[in-house]
Description:
Elements: E1 2-13, E2 16-28, E3 33-38, H1 44-51, E4 59-64, E5 67-68, H2 74-84, E6 85-88, H3 100-110, H4 116-125, H5 141-153, E7 159-163, H6 171-188, E8 191-195, H7 199-202, E9 207-212, E10 215-218
Parallel strand pairs: 3-8, 3-9, 6-7, 7-8
Antiparallel strand pairs: 1-2, 1-4, 4-5, 9-10
Helix pairs in contact: 3-5, 5-6
The structure holds adenosine-5'-triphosphate (ATP).
Amino acid sequence: xxxxxxxxxxxxxxxxxxxxxxxxxxxxxxxxxxxxxxxxxxxxxxxxxxxxxxxxxxxxxxxxxxxxxxxxxxxxxxxxxxxxxxxxxxxxxxxxxxxxxxxxxxxxxxxxxxxxxxxxxxxxxxxxxxxxxxxxxxxxxxxxxxxxxxxxxxxxxxxxxxxxxxxxxxxxxxxxxxxxxxxxxxxxxxxxxxxxxxxxxxxxxxxxxxxxxxxxxxxxxxxxx
Length: 225
Ligand SMILES: Nc1ncnc2c1ncn2[C@@H]1O[C@H](COP(=O)(O)OP(=O)(O)OP(=O)(O)O)[C@@H](O)[C@H]1O
């Protein structure tokens, strides 16, 4: 589903290049769930952006659904993203001028995979049924996060990429949203890559990798930070 082969990435800074990823190998099978942990600044978001084709590696290869991202044009990468990925970031990126129902179905409509029955089920299971005509600003933070998850899962993406999907929520709401997210991902059959600082988020996933000094190690989930 997703493969990194010897991926290197550095950022240009006034002090010279800052190497962030130094030879990353990673493989995520269809339907598999993976937590990516590591200290602040270790390169987790960088890796997620490369996985989504929002940025490209300096060397090495990132393959998504069997396609090498560096070999595609930007429009072709955008198509592949639309057809393959669901994205959930800490900032929810909801469209303020669209109501809850239209926000939820936006990605699915863009991907040509709008399924009204599945959208209704998502609204129901995410506790948003009855709120379809509200606008994002009329929702609580937890409700907005659940809507962002619903929007990402509405097209049944082959891979869901999530950056601290419960980072802005209190612990109780975070647990609730995580449980829902995992149940929905299982039902959709999506693979899942979650960037998180939280061992509570990583614990229920199939595997956990830790990013450190630009490389990945398999991490024991218990006690990993
Ligand atoms: N556009 C950029 N230009 C220069 N340096 C950058 C850029 N983006 C990120 N960095 C640096 O690259 C390193 C990795 O950043 P990244 O955001 O990937 O880390 P992270 O593990 O996601 O951190 P956090 O857990 O704090 O979100 C950091 O040292 C950061 O300052």
